[in-house]
Amino acid sequence: MSHPLLNSDGGQRHLLLGNEAIVRGALEAGVAFVSCYPGTPSSEVPDTFYRLAPDGDFTFEYSVNEKVALEVGGGAALAGAPTLVTMKHVGVNVAADPLMTLAYIGTPGGLVLLSADDPGCHSSQNEQDNRYYARLAGMPVFEPCSAQEAKDMTRDAFALSRKHEQPVMLRTTTRVAHVRGPVDFGPRPGAIHGPEFTKNPGRFVPVPAVSRVRHGVLLENLDAIRKDVEASPWNSVSGDATVGVVASGMARAYVDDVLAEDQFDGACKVLRLGLTYPLPETMLTDFLRSVDRVLVVEEGEPLVEDALRTLAQKHGISVEISGKGTHLSRQGEYCTRIVRSAVAAFLGDTDTNTESPAPEQLPMRPPNLCAGCSHRALYYTVRQAFGDDAVYSSDIGCYTLGILPPLSAADFLLCMGSSVSAGSGFAAAQDKPVVAFIGDSTFFHSGITGLVNAVYNQRDVLIVILDNRTTAMTGHQPNPGVEVTVHGENPSQVDIEAIVRGCGVQHIRRVSPYNFKKTSSTIEELKGMKGVRVLIAEEPCVLFAKRTLRKSRPNAAYVTKQTEAVAKCLTDLACPAFRQDESGVSIDEQQCAGCMFCLQVCSDIKARKRS
User: Fold this and answer.
1) Are residues 532 and 440 both part of a single domain?
2) Which of 206, 222, 207 is nearest to 105 (CA)?
3) Does residue 201 share a domain with residue 295?
């Protein structure tokens, strides 16, 4: 039986995650090619396509990074395939180079770029607003605020892209990506193929003479798209008050919730923007003329707010425009409480209680490496060798959680793949030993070029590749180095050691981090060397091993007696399976992964069969 998302008929209603709704919208648009690099909050989109792929009529790939994903997707769109490329917001930084050029040459088959932004940094190193990228590249932007809109806007984004042969951005945020709501299905026509590619170097080969012309074409296309935006049902006006609210993206949902409350009923005229670039200037200008004051509600940067000020000045409209810096912040994620407070202040409603009851304080749960995680074993062993004498260059992945004490194995971090490059730069500028940690998926993503650079420039750095056989942080997606996926064996496994050796590294060692004695002696050996050295620490992610590889460990660790050594093991290793109460230290058998690393560092811990 095929998955409900693949149903060809319309008329059904399903409860979907916002990201799942995007999948259905792309299918209803006839998507034929999907590429991605996984990253929260976008990951469920490609993960769903991956699960559907064996029964679907589209082509799907996990690409090694976002730049490659967009280049592959761009090629498919040039070949006439309606194409979806997905990534989180910081991934667009990686993909920006091909993105700017694709906007010039166009995408005949249609291309939608999903940029999943993360206001509030729920799972990211920054909260950049990628509507800037859309304006920089000249891309229309759809911003859904519900699961139903996520589906419908994805479908309409493809239609707009194919009509004008221009890439289109679908900008979501964490809230809409992970919202769950009812979604009414339309018909799914099946993958569309065509138009057939017609060779035209004067369009598709952007040498300077071509690019100058194509820039003009892009501007003309944006003018044509602006007419569609003016007529789009995704932008609407309601109410007849003399004070107005302009809301875009997810903020529309918060504004609707607030204005539905009795005390604000009918208080504001509202312009809702769902198709947010190019802006519907005629609609906005007419709106500004119809009100005395306007509150602009948009998460992130004041892009709409600044555009409204420009429009008001351009047309000589005397209207007070409020937003960032007056009632709202450029930082963080909005919510109904924040918007309610802003609307009340904007309306001068001092009698309205906008404060929500103080939530009950729940116990804090800091992010932590899983019980039995091989990264914990590796960090412990590295710190036994280097302690605080070394500087630890970290990267993006589960292993970034090594920042927390007692492991304290992350001193700086820039972006995906930066640990090797930044670590080698740090090593060139001072004399302390530098240890750079990078995961297997991150190594394939953008660590290889840094390694080549370090070898070429003869940097003194120890690079530790944490190979846990999956892309663990974002949901166990496959990468080129995996042996097994949920669909079976990987017939094209890429060997990390072969790549490292091919980059010119002479000193390469492989260990299992669970083997404390071997790993410790290997690190000591590498510590005594100079130049670029690489340690490949190989051990499958404990969750991946259990769920996908179907491997389980029959034994669990237990404490034989309460000693200072056991207390020190708890303090220095900090495995979540350890417990401490008034009776002393114990190990939770249900939490214990059976790695048996603690047995090797404390003689008062033993192994026994699970009960």
Assistant:
1) yes
2) 206
3) no
Same domain, 469 and 404: yes
| Contact (CB, 8 A) for 395 and 359 | no
Q: How is residue 137 annotated by DSSP?
A: H
**pLDDT of residue 364 exceeding 80:** no
In this structure, the answer to whether residues 274 and 148 fall within a common structural domain is no
On the question of pLDDT at 353 being above 70, the answer is: no
What is the count of structural domains for the chain? 4
The model's pTM: 0.92
Band of residue 611 on the pLDDT scale cut at 50, 70, 90: confident
Are 275 and 141 spatial neighbours (Cβ–Cβ below 8 Å)? Answer: yes
Residue type, 519: T
Domain shared by 534 and 589, yes or no: no
412 — alpha (psi -120 to 50), left (phi > 0) or beta? beta
CA gap 487, 473 in Å, rounded: 20
Q: Are 446 and 419 contacting, i.e. CB atoms less than 8 angstroms apart?
A: no
pLDDT 10s digits, 442-472: 999 999 999 999 999 999 999 999 999 899 8
Same domain, 23 and 116: yes
Whether 271 contacts 195, CB under 8 Å: no
Q: Residue 157's domain is classified under what CATH number?
A: 3.40.50.970
Q: What is the CA radius of gyration of the chain?
A: 27
Q: Which residue range(s) make up the domain with 261?
A: 235-347
Please state, as a whole number, how many other Cβ atoms lie within 10 Å of the Cβ of residue 177.
28
User: 């990264």: which residue's tokens?
Assistant: 375
Query: With bands split at pLDDT 50, 70 and 90, how would you rate the model's confidence at 361?
Result: confident
Same domain, yes or no: 289 and 405: no
Report the alpha-carbon angle 519-525-530, nearest 5: 130
**142 lies in the same domain as 243:** no
